[in-house]
Write a structure and sequence with these properties.
388 residues; alpha/beta; Rossmann fold; 2 domains; 6-stranded parallel sheet
Length: 388
């Protein structure tokens, strides 16, 4: 099959969970299919992109700055990318059998659907996240938030074939007007399936993700300070970057934790992975997650996770309470500290239970399971002539 994957970010030029999902998806599909990754130029014009093995990368726009200084998506870059996607698919509509795109930030989704309506290939849409109207208003303000929510509903109704990664997103999609039943993909973990022998755990807490308000990262230093009162020598590694990083660093300084908390910014995944292998736990105090890939990656190393119960947080679906981690009732530092202390008090048992949880759930967590689902879906759409 000839597959076009459409997303305006390419890992590792842009770092995030969705970026890793699409890179891994493209690379794995390219083992058996002809795959083109349609994206935005995130590298210097005189350089070559870091392309997934066996994948052709095509840049259809060139905006370098996707986010405002406050961590919000800019409007113009997605508009330009959507326009570029539409032009590319019109020119090359006979070059692809199927188009697989991310829903957000919507303009590329609409472009792909316009291309399909004009005789192009059928379109599969990943709805990795669907936002509540309350979250839209918090994200963009009253008027713009209502407009954003309205655009989301329009795109839901116009989606012909949707894929999701969680029950939360499937429910939200149907409630928003999607006609049909979304395909819930089994897994996105692309790492090694085998677990290493159990290793001694250090009193070390890990965070890995963007530093934006909804991730709750700024609460971690105070949580570490509180937990250190009962866990001598507790430390933290806070990986990632973003507009909240200054606040995180300021909190570390205010609490006198410079020697206890390291905040190195974005680092190669190999360093994050090596740290997870020896950590006590992962802390992900996010209010909004479409899936929570890092929770699975931590579990693959036997490392339990702490996530936060919140209406937009699908990561709680990955936690079996007390087995591979804990669901905290809020991101308040004292609540996170109590969860860290609980895991520390039961560390050997928690690590073993996490290893067992991953081994039992591995068939539903790995990318191979989703590849099988998607190949069957692509074949069905192509045979039916959908989009033509």
């Amino acid at each position: 099959m000839r597959i076009a994957i459409v997303y305006d970010c390419l890992y590792p030029h842009t770092i995030g969970g969705a970026e890793r999902w699409y890179r891994n998806l493209a690379e794995r599909l390219a083992r058996r299919h002809d795959v083109t990754y349609v994206t935005r130029r995130q590298w210097n014009s005189d350089a070559r992109p870091d392309a997934p093995a066996g994948v052709r990368v095509v840049a259809v726009s060139s905006d370098r700055q996707l986010y405002t200084p406050w961590g919000r998506r800019r409007i113009v870059p997605p508009l330009r990318f959507g326009s570029g996607v539409l032009c590319h698919l019109i020119r090359h509509r006979r070059d692809y059998d199927v188009v697989h795109t991310c829903a957000f930030p919507y303009f590329s989704l609409l472009a792909a659907q316009l291309g399909a309506a004009g005789g192009g290939p059928p379109v599969v849409v990943d709805w990795l996240e669907t936002w509540s109207e309350q979250y839209w208003r918090a994200y963009l303000g009253g008027l713009r938030g209502r407009v954003g929510a309205a655009v989301q509903r329009l795109c839901m109704r116009r989606t012909q074939q949707a894929c999701v990664l969680s029950t939360l997103q499937a429910t939200r999609l149907v409630e928003g007007g999607y006609q049909g039943q979304p395909l819930i993909l089994h897994g996105v973990y692309a790492g090694h399936a085998a677990l290493e022998p159990a290793a001694a755990r250090e009193p070390l807490v890990v965070y890995a993700g963007r530093h934006i308000p909804e991730k709750g990262v700024s609460a971690i230093p105070a949580a570490i300070a509180a937990a250190r009162q009962r866990i001598p020598g507790l430390r933290a590694e806070i990986f990632g970057d973003g507009p909240e990083r200054r606040r995180v660093v300021a909190e570390i300084e205010r609490l006198g934790l410079r020697d206890a908390i390291r905040c190195p910014g974005f680092v190669p995944w190999e360093e994050v992975d090596a740290t997870l292998r020896r950590a006590l736990c992962l802390v992900l105090p996010s209010q909004r997650e479409g899936y929570g890939l890092v929770v699975v990656e931590a579990a693959a190393r036997g490392t339990p996770s702490i996530v936060v119960r919140a209406p937009d947080n699908a990561a709680i679906e990955l936690i079996a309470q007390g087995q591979n981690g804990l669901i905290a009732e809020s991101a308040a530092p004292d609540v996170l500290a109590a969860a860290i202390e609980t895991i520390h008090a039961n560390a050997p048992a928690m690590v073993q239970r996490t290893r067992t949880w991953f081994a039992e759930n591995e068939p539903q967590l790995t990318l191979d399971a989703s590849i099988t689902q998607l190949e069957a879906l692509y074949s069905t759409l192509i045979r039916s002539g959908a989009g033509a």
